[in-house]
Specification:
about 0% strand, mainly alpha
Length: about 220
């Protein structure tokens, strides 16, 4: 236990903590200078997996808090029917599928990015969603119904900004031209649909197989009686 606590204390007071804070602050540079930012993020190693994980967690929390604490005038979520786990998976699963699909596609298209680099770039692209989404949750509780339209506009702006950053990440991480990057993104989206179909088909077949063996087991027990 002492070694564990000592390791934690060493992290928060050592170079690892300083590097973590530096790479997390770098997200603000990335969103304002996306082309240079994403290039240096991976090629110059100015980003970190820890910072990317932090931004991803903050994006998930922003989504959950928005559904829970945003004013009812802009939020029609019924909390009694709201599932934290399903909504969390609703962000993390598409993120994983996107990274996997983009890695598969860009590998075939001579992309230079690795799996973790694609994940880091995508995670850093979530930054506008976090820095705009969190204040909008508070703002939604002090505006009138007519002013609530600004809540929608700012959230749309945050999503568009994040989408643009994902495009920039694809271009810089894989060293693509604009046309090749757009083609890679379109094919990646198609790849996401294919992956989801295969996964759903797999679980459907697995469920059918389990039900078959359960029925077979019950039939055997019935005949042995």
């Amino acid at each position: 236990m002492k070694k564990f606590l000592s390791a934690i204390a060493g992290f928060f007071h050592g170079e690892s903590w300083a590097n973590y804070k530096k790479t997390l602050r770098y997200a603000f540079y990335v969103i304002l200078h996306p082309f240079d930012g994403f290039w240096d993020l991976t090629h110059e190693k100015r980003g970190s997996l820890a910072a990317a994980n932090t931004i991803t967690i903050l994006a998930v929390l922003t989504h959950l808090w928005d559904r829970r604490f945003a004013n009812f005038m802009v939020n029609n979520t019924r909390w009694s029917e709201f599932s934290i786990w399903l909504n969390t998976l609703g962000i993390l699963v598409p993120l994983l599928i996107w990274v996997t699909a983009n890695w598969c596609v860009t590998t075939l298209m001579d992309g230079k990015g690795r799996f973790l680099q694609i994940y880091m770039g995508t995670a850093y692209a979530f930054t506008p969603y976090v820095i705009i989404g969190l204040p909008m949750i508070l703002l939604s509780n002090v505006v009138t119904k007519e002013e609530g339209v600004f809540y929608t506009y700012f959230n749309i702006f945050a999503l568009v900004w994040s989408g643009f950053l994902i495009l920039c990440a694809v271009l810089m991480i894989h060293d693509y031209s604009l046309l090749k990057g757009l083609v890679a993104i379109i094919i990646s989206i198609v790849g996401m649909a294919v992956i989801m179909f295969v996964v759903l088909l797999f679980f459907s077949l697995l469920s059918d197989a389990v039900m078959y063996f359960v029925s077979l087991y019950k039939e055997i027990l019935f005949r042995m009686e």
